[in-house]
Write a structure and sequence with these properties.
Strand order of the largest sheet: 1-2-3
Number of helices: 2
Radius of gyration: 19 Å
Shape: elongated
Number of strands: 3
Structural class: alpha+beta
Strand content: 15-25%
Distance between the termini: 60 Å
Length: 78
């Protein structure tokens, strides 16, 4: 039996076909999961794609912020 993951990130993503319905995406070090039928059959779905795009965009924003702060650091020798 597989040991359960100790860390996970959970996203709730709105369904594209059913208003008011949300799907749960779980990311762990062992992989990803979505509770929709598409993921059950294909191991991929539009909800997971949306989460991946969100994470990529957030990583880009964070990288730009870090690079911007790094440019403003002044190092002086004494």
């Amino acid at each position: 039996m597989e040991t359960p993951s100790t860390q996970q990130i959970v996203f709730r993503v709105p369904s594209g076909s059913n208003d008011g319905t949300y799907h749960t995406i779980i990311l762990t070090e062992n992989g990803t999961n979505c509770d929709c039928l598409g993921f059950l059959y294909r191991k991929n779905c539009s909800h997971l794609v949306r989460v991946r795009k969100f994470l990529i965009n957030e990583a880009k924003k964070w990288k730009q912020e870090v690079e911007s702060k790094r440019k403003n650091i002044v190092v002086s020798s004494v």
